[in-house]
Design goal:
- The structure is a single chain.
- By secondary structure, the chain is an alpha+beta fold.
- The protein has a domain of about 190 residues: Porin (Beta Barrel).
- Strands 1, 2, 3, 4, 5, 6, 7, 8 and 9 form a 9-stranded antiparallel sheet that branches.
- Strand 7 and strand 8 form a beta hairpin.
- The radius of gyration is 23 Å and the shape is elongated.
- It starts with a strand and ends in an 11-residue tail after the last strand.
Length: about 280
Amino acid sequence: MSDMWADVGTKSPIDHYGNSDYWKNVKMMGGIYGRYTHLPGLSFRLSIANGTLYANDVWNKTGAQGAASFSDDYVQRYYRNLDVKTTVWESSLMVEISPMELFTNWEYSRLAHSRFQPYLMVGVGGMYFNPRGSYTKNYETDYKEWVDLRPLHTEGQNFDKAGYPVNYNQYSIIIPAGIGFRVDMGRGLGLGLEYVTRYTFTDYLDDVSGQYIDPLRFDIAYLGDNVKADMAKKMADKSFELAPGTKHTAGQYRGDPKNKDMYSTISLNFFWKINKRNSPWWR
C-alpha cells in the first residue's frame, strides 16, 4: 500500500488515513529484492519496485466544513482542488539491522534464534516519477482523463520571464528508512510486514511546489496551440470547479517550496532463502 506525502492531499496522517475517500482510492506498489546476511542481524538488500502514488485535495472537505475562516489550511487545500496520480519506479540499497540477533549472543540467546525478528533499515536509492492530474474534458458528463503534468509547466517552469522556475527533473535521489518484522515459516520460507518512508530530493512529486502564475502567460507560451494553453490553465488552477468564478492571483502559493516531498509503503513480504545451510559461516 503506497502513500504520497506532498503538497496535494492532507497535512496530517490522521486526516489522511481517517478519510473515507482515501480508502476508495488506495494505490499499490510491488517489487523484488535480494538480501545477503553478512553477520547475524546485519544484512544488505538491493531492491527494485514500481507503483502508483495518489493524493487529492478533496480529502480536506470535512476539515474545511468545520473551519472558522477561509484562510484556514483545510479550506485553502480543499478549494485548491488538485489531485495527482504519480507513477514511480525506484531502486535502493539498504542496510537491515535485527537487534535481537545483532546485539545478543547468537549461539546461546533465545532471542537471537527466535522465529520472530523485528528489524530496522536505512539506505539510499534513486527514483523516476511522472505526475498526472485529472482533466475534465466534458463538464456536462463529468468525463475526465489523466494527463501528464510536467509538459504543461503549470507553475511556469522554463517560461521566458525572470523569476520563473526551471523545469523539474523527473529523477531524484531517495533516502529510504523503515521498520518491520519477519517470521520464519521454516528453513526456506519467511513472511514479513514493514513500513518504509522515502525522503526525496524533489518538491514536484505532485507537480506542486511554488506559485500560481498569470493565466495569460500560458497563452503566450503556447501561442498557436489553444488546446494545450487551455488545458494548462485549467490544470494550474482548478478552484473554479468548486467555486465558479474563483481564480487565484499571480504570486499566491500553490504549495510549500520549503519542504521536499515524501512517500511511503506498508508492505507484506514473502521471501525464500536460497542458501539454506545447516551451519552458517559465522559459526
